[in-house]
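Data availability excerpt. The first of two example chains:
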Amino acid sequence: MKIAEFIPQVFYDMIARIAPGLIILATIVAIWFDELIPLREVFTEMFNESPVIVSMVMVLIAYVVAIILEGVRSDVKKFIVFFAKLAKHQSGKQQRCTQWSEAWDDFCNLYPNYEVLKPFRPADAVVIDVLRLLNPSVGSRIVKLRAEVTLCQTLGTGWAVIFVLLVLYMLLSHIMPNLNSKLSAGYCITALLLLIGIRAITNRCISIDNRHLRALYNHWLLLVSPGVISLSDNSNANVPVIPIDPPAMLIPMDAVRSDLQLKDKGRGYRKILVTKIYEDIEKPATEIVWNTPQEDQLSQVLLTNNIEVSMFSQAASQDLHVHKLATEIYCVLDGKMEINVNSEPFTLQRGDMIVIKPGTIHKICETNNKFFCSVITTNCHGAEDKYCV
């Protein structure tokens, strides 16, 4: 297992299980401090002899306590769901459906054409695993939020159990005189503090859980954003579709070579397949064969849904940039090109190809070598997905 894959799981266990387990044990010791004198003496003696082993055992005990409390909470949750139905309150499942709908509404505000193409929502655990595999940085953030939610849930359950035990202990101390009842007032204050803690940790859990769900669903929608809209589906009848005339685009190399924009005094790039037309420099193509535009002519481009194709030459000047969603494929058609990928230079010759994944910092380097290069951008979101470094 790679370190990058191992560390998030260790952090999850530390935050979600070991931390609340230790807090629960500390709470028990603080409340029944006098009653645990024999156990404290034994623990102190063992800790003085081998502190490392005792510390490891305490961590293990805390882990097991947290696991047990998770099981207790799972059983209690069934009763909560039952009473929520009686009281006509939203269940956890209904709350997740609400969060999913709100995330989808926000997504449709950004991409209106996708309104009729709502994807399915798998189980949260499946979404987390997919995000961790395809986007580790996002996956780590989601795992951290989920660990915080579990911490709050475990801590709240543990304190609730301690509160019930403390109330029973106080009742028995009055019924059975042989029990220690001298600290009844202190126990009452402790019970009140536990109630306040349970209330606070529950509110915090709700807040973090909402953040966790919205982040989870937002990233899932971006990941599975629909592709080309199907013309055969009647439900898409009112959705704007991509023009299909002309049905193809042929790009002759001679036409590319004679393009003034790709000469040394030009800007060094020309878009041919686009996801958005800029009317001041482009117009929809009417012919299959791409012709070189003159200085006073608009360039003919083929409008596509989520893919762009551009031509680059040595006159191009790029800033270091990154795409969060798009994947770029650079293909050298002639000459020798240099490209910087995550601060590492690469030299590509005719016929070479390099694939730039989302999240990779890159740029075409300025060079005296002449070259022609085609760039294919998939899952393209235009200028909105370009972030200069």
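And the second chain:
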Amino acid sequence: MRYVLLALSLLLALSSPVGGLRFIACFVFLLIAAALASNALVRRRVTVTRLDPEVRSTRRQPIRDRLLLRNFLPIPVARLIVSESPRSLHCNRAHHEVTLAPAGETELQLILRSERRGEYRYGPVKLLGSDPFGFFEWERIDDSQARAIVFPMLHPIRPVDRFGAAGGSVAVQNPACEDVTRFRSLREYVTGDEPKRINWKASAKSGRLYTTEYEKTLSVAVRVVLNLSEDDYPTRRRDQLIERAVEVAAALIFEYAKRAQPVGLVAAAELAGEAQKSPLAYDERSGWQQAETLLEVLARIRAANGSADYIRLVYGSGRGTGRRVPAGLRLFVVGPTPNDEQIGQLRALRKGRLRVELFEVESTETTNPSTLAGVLPVHTVTLTGEQIVDR
């Protein structure tokens, strides 16, 4: 229609015998041509840049999608409507109206949310505007996509550190846990100090005996053993119990990463979108990068068929698939009520001098106290609420 009006006004401007009509036709022609030229320029010279092409958040927490809009023209853009395609995510506002100054820019922030953990992609961005006179609208689709990793909800958890070996970052008062790799200070020798602690270089320089002191620390190498085998969970409320088990594993990983302790993960589960089959295994390492890697795995993890074999999860099976089990390793087994065969497997792990604790997700079945009593510490996990462990 716009081009018909443009052609008609040009025809009248060139062929009309009435001077006034030719003037009006010329004016209309120039107005329409200016509107069309303005739309064409703005469509090409207004850009959208994603400031966060990859975002990480937790379930039900805001995902901040920041867009930078730039105007490369010497004229203002009076009205521009920006809308994001959130796909499976929830968006607080579907459309945002912005104004761009000549050669100016503005940052737009959209808030997305997810009720479920997982990996999400959102985009493209749609721009809708009009010429300065409001005659014609234009539309442009920016194909830029973004990726959001939604972690499980992170609840506070405070497991008790009763075991460990020297060489870590948890301060303790027991001198037997001194970490000989972390020098603290020198002090004068007193009767009873071990000869191997005497600093002979400092003693030779001063003429008096000095003893070396080290940091007193405790290291708790942790391996979270997560059971997401469908056959081990009751049919009733299975999805909720599995989700709660994932939250417990995430809480343990986050807590020990915060303490600068080595933490790893083995899981009877599968990763969504990948061919890697159960079980999943990640060796113990310390640092926030390791925690982020494991939390991303938990964001994408899903249940696997069958029943869990805890011996196979911890040690691996088959030629070349054995897993490293360091001395003093602490196992946090997270899952539903174990059956008789699995209780026997946990007994065997306990006899193998491993520190095993069970975080049992609340189910409709009742654990037999006589069977588990004295075998290993059992923590009951409530199905809902922020209090994970019921002591």
